[in-house]
Amino acid sequence: MSRSPRYYVKPHIAEQLGLKVNAEGRYRLNAERKQRLDELTGTDTETNQYEKRSPVLSALKANGSIMTIQEYCKVYGLDYSDVRSYKLISHTGTPFYNCASHILNETDEEEITLEEIKKLISDDLSQYHYTPKQTKTGGKVDVVKISDLHFGAYIDGLIKTKDFSISILADYLNAAVDLINERKADTVHVHILGDLIESFTGMNHKNTWKGLQKGMIGAEVVKLCTKVLHTELLNKINNLGEVKIIAGNHDRLTSDNKEDTDGGAADLISWGLDLIGYSVEFNPFVITHEVDGICHILLHGDKPISKKSTKDICWDYGKQNMFNLVCEGHLHSIMEKLSVSQRTAFKTIKDDAVDHRRMYCPSLFTGNSFSEYLGYTSNPGIVITSNNGRGIPHVLYYAL
Description:
five-stranded mixed sheet; single chain; Purple Acid Phosphatase, chain A, domain 2; 2 domains; alpha/beta
């Protein structure tokens, strides 16, 4: 079916043209009005020129945060009361609002395919290559647990919560490398338990845009997160083994958590690390990894799987006749999620038995204004586990 051309004009021009809006909130141009539109806008409106549109109006503020729709309308002289619906479009590079109003035509979203995003990432990562660092060690195997990096988040000047930025995160990762290499393990596996980035769209939650570092959305946040994981963490670890990555609720490619349940951003980062040369396994929900006689079950903590009992999780995803260690992140703390009245009785371990343990791992991200509003604060940290020689894990918490 042929497609009718669309024209995008500002309200004052629509008024000068005397345009009448139809029931769908659209208008049509006859030949006379098309000619008049050319005179007013200085453009050519031949019928074979589909998708005539105005230049993208950036939703970025000078400080790199994203405007609200009300701010966007004010900056560009749009009548907010005329906006019927809107959507933030960010994956094309320059974020802007796609608005449908009762006067203007509804603009089409600039779509970018997954393959196009992968092309951007692969081109940008082509200069990076993993070089294994092998050293003589004592023969033990370590498993490092890292959770909730929230790459791209920016926190500054809160009362109790520590500042956070990409450079601060890089410092944490470097400190983690020092602790890992000091243990001189023969093999080091790394488990990343989700929420690798703060946001792909800039609108994961209502106020996400307030805590974003400049430019850290879309393909840019995926590319830079991949680079930092490579240069500041993985490439510096001696005797690195396998890397396992679980998706978190912040790792989706959409602002709506119902549209992307597979953690597309974490998947892309895993794909990028694989391009660089790492042995990477990704799953959006759960990974089972047998290491040195212990079965590690990796979850983020936000999915329905985490609502199951520990015994059911071990039965469904673990190994019989082996110690099962279930690790989750998501809470930005090693404490179990409790009500306000229960908070003084917090637990670092949710479930513990002779053949299994379920525990929360510390976060590298220390919180934001919302967590501070709730009264939660935490310190960044990692967990390193190893077999005690009898099939039971030593669990070591390291503060950064």
